[in-house]
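step=encode ok
step=design start
structure_in=
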């Protein structure tokens, strides 16, 4: 059973990695645009506010950190479950009578 959980986690990690790559490529594409192709503002933007690209990059970094934290937590849970399963299997084997 724990292999199925691990396989599902691996699939989700691959999906998340693909999404991060796609978002990163989109952000890189936005950064590569020449300045004249960006929408013009009727009023100058506030100097302390991030550009849309910078804001997207910051959101992406926060999302990546959150995903990494979640994955680490899931990995710890999987290891704990595997340890419990192994302990239970060892207990069951030790409790069986030996038949020569």
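sequence_out=
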């Amino acid at each position: 059973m724990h292999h199925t959980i691990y396989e599902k986690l691996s699939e989700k990690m691959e999906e998340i990695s693909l999404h991060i790559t796609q978002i990163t490529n989109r952000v890189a594409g936005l950064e590569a645009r020449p300045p004249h192709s960006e929408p013009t503002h009727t009023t100058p933007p506030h100097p302390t506010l991030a550009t849309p690209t910078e804001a997207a990059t910051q959101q992406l970094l926060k999302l990546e950190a959150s995903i990494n934290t979640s994955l680490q937590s899931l990995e710890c849970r999987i290891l704990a479950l595997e340890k419990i399963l192994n302990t239970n299997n060892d207990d069951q084997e030790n409790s069986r009578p030996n038949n020569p």
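step=design ok
step=annotate ok -> The helical segments are 2-32, 52-95.
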